Automatic annotation (TrEMBL):
InterPro entries per record: DinB/YfiT-like, MST-like
Protein name: DinB superfamily protein
Pfam families from the UniProt entry: MST
Region (Disordered): 78-97
Species: Micromonospora yangpuensis
Source species, domain of life: Bacteria
Sequence intervals crossing the membrane: none
Amino acid composition bias (Basic and acidic residues), ranges on this chain: 82-97
Length: 173
């Protein structure tokens, strides 16, 4: 039996009177879920088709946001000694490049895993917990969550436009 997809607006609606953390996490998860919905149903060729002058593709956006999830929470709050950061402009551009063998299914799964790890790391710290970012200095978990909401939502907007150009599909669901 196939389970019906959860309405992506449900978590933010349930958190509408929640505490700050519940609201931040609900909106971040909303945008994470919409991104995956933009990828659903696309073939590998459709997901990697360039429809704008830049190298931006739906698959590339998912790959980039996977790197973003890894860099902003696990690598800042619980860094592993052998875990390189992707802070350079080159690493940022490279994160949009989909390589051979990086299928829609693999990209989606890598993103799901990165988000799950980010949730796990975030849950271990108070919103006021501060870490040092190598380029911008001290930042709190609260700041990181707001930044992730902004970055994810912005790229979901890009994915929405690309998906509409691909097959006409629009909307969060």
């Amino acid at each position: 039996m196939t389970q019906a997809p959860i309405d992506p607006m449900l978590p933010p609606m349930l958190a509408r009177t929640g505490d700050e953390r519940a609201v931040l996490e609900a909106f971040l998860d909303l945008h994470r879920g919409v991104l995956l919905r933009k990828l659903e149903g696309l073939t590998d060729a459709e997901a990697t088709r360039r429809l704008v002058p830049s190298d931006t593709t739906v698959a590339g956006l998912v790959k980039h946001l996977t790197m973003v999830e890894r860099n902003w929470l696990p690598r800042l709050f619980e860094p592993a000694p052998d875990d390189p950061r992707g802070d350079s402009a080159e690493a940022g551009r490279e994160s949009f490049t989909v390589r051979e063998g990086e299928t829609v299914d693999r990209l989606a799964e890598a993103y799901r895993q990165a988000c799950a790890r980010s949730r796990e790391v975030s849950a271990a710290y108070d919103l006021d917990h501060v870490v040092t970012h190598p380029l911008i200095g001290e930042i709190s978990l609260r700041w990181v969550l707001v930044h992730l909401i902004e970055e994810t939502a912005r790229h979901v907007g890009h994915a929405d436009i690309l998906r509409e150009q691909t097959d006409g599909a629009t909307g969060a669901v």
